[in-house]
Design a protein that fits this description.
Bound molecules: zinc ion
Strand content: under 5%
Structural class: mainly alpha
């Protein structure tokens, strides 16, 4: 087996390349469907769906809008609300704290 990062020969049962430390042999974890926090307009359902399916967010929103109109508005709105309730929101990633001194007053 060869390392994907440095190309050197490594043992078949190894999980790390002993030359560069690259993780090998572990299949990528499947993406979880999550509502987007950064890209949301209402609840982040369309953005989360777009990220999950590797589609453009605007395309998903336009499709959702026209499907909602074509089906008499209610099914699309109910589906969106169900998605909002059922699909978990992606975890909040806070910026790494810098070495600033706490503000005292
Ligand atoms: Zn390597």
């Amino acid at each position: 087996m060869y390392c994907n990062a440095c190309g050197k020969t490594i043992t078949d049962d190894g999980r790390f390349c002993s030359y560069c430390g690259n993780v090998v042999g572990i299949p990528p974890t499947p993406k979880k469907l999550m509502r987007s926090r950064a890209d949301k307009k209402i609840g982040g359902v369309c953005a989360g769906l777009a990220h999950h399916l590797d589609l453009d967010v605007s395309l998903v929103r336009i499709l959702w809008f026209f499907i909602t109109l074509a089906t008499g508005i209610c099914p699309g709105v109910v589906a969106y609300l169900l998605g909002w309730i059922i699909i978990p929101q992606e975890p909040l990633i806070l910026p790494v704290a810098t070495s600033q001194q706490p503000v005292t007053s």
